[in-house]
Specification:
Length: 111
């Protein structure tokens, strides 16, 4: 609890709602996120990408249904068309490798 009676998370959420860019910059700096260049710096949208890719990788590694996970993620991300979420599959070499391994295993099991 903070001195104001609210949780730190609630206060951070309020700060983020009121001043999202300033709050993101402060959080990124506190986390030690460094720009790779002036044109390539940490963006809040990168969190969506990281969350989606990590969630899909976790699903594949746990043997869960990737399609069901992708549909769930599309909903969480607010994508009206799940095809918009498929972009995340091609944007990550690690995810492409996991999908490829899953496909190879499936093909080996076929008669």
């Amino acid at each position: 609890m903070s001195a104001h009676g609210g949780s730190v998370a609630a206060l951070l959420g309020l700060c983020f709602a009121l001043r999202p860019v300033a709050t993101w910059k402060r959080l990124a700096a506190s986390a030690g996120l460094q720009p790779r260049s002036a044109a390539c710096r940490p963006r809040i949208h990168d969190l969506r990408h990281s969350f989606t890719v990590r969630s899909l990788l976790d699903a594949y590694q746990a043997g869960r249904d990737g399609q069901a996970t992708l549909a769930l993620l599309a909903t969480w991300l607010g994508h009206v068309d799940p095809a918009a979420t498929y972009w995340y599959l091609t944007a990550s070499p690690e995810l492409m490798a996991a999908v490829g391994h899953r496909l190879e295993a499936w093909l080996r099991e076929r008669p």
